[in-house]
């Protein structure tokens, strides 16, 4: 990819219960700061451009809040907006000083859901870049699968079913 290539844009969304660190993570990621230095009520959308696996990516991160509806941190008004997101980052780990979810439990759930599991610390800037990069990798993987499926569908519906189209069709089956 050339130097002047436009970065692919990804709309990410941070969701989870109140007080788990949803706001701290994108702030650490985009501004390299943690804690009182930033007033989280100022904005709920952050952007950062990074290179992931040699491909430039522009990440638009939407930090959800407003928990009148309880657990998810998303009220009904915003559910529609949420659908615009390409990827979702959902997490929660500790409460006060007690660890409530073990690493094993987290990893097991992630494996059950078929998604990557990454423990982060916005405070110590541990695995912050990695969490966002991994999310973008997941989206890229998904998009690639979609493209293959679309190609296969095209091939199977066309009247002139050439060799390569039939081959792609078998991938979907
Ligand atoms: N020790 C520690 N505290 C954190 C971390 N991330 C957030 N916090 C603290 O947890 C509290 C809630 O964080 P916040 O980002 O506002 O949570 P939100 O309600 O999910 O957006 C704040 O007091 C943060 O300083 C972290 O990685 N480590
Ligand atoms: Mg918040």
TrEMBL record:
Residue intervals passing through the bilayer: none
Record keyword Transmembrane present: no
Membrane topology: Lipid-anchor
Location in or out of the cell: Cell membrane
UniProt GO cellular component terms: plasma membrane
Pfam families the UniProt entry points to: Ras
Keyword annotations of the record: GTP-binding, Nucleotide-binding
Coiled-coil annotated residue ranges, if any: none
GO process terms (BP): signal transduction
Family annotation (InterPro entries): P-loop_NTPase, Small_GTP-bd, Small_GTPase, Small_GTPase_Ras-type
Name of the featured protein: Uncharacterized protein
Organism: Agrocybe chaxingu
One example GO MF annotation: GTP binding
Xref: SMART domains: RAB (SM00175), RAS (SM00173), RHO (SM00174)
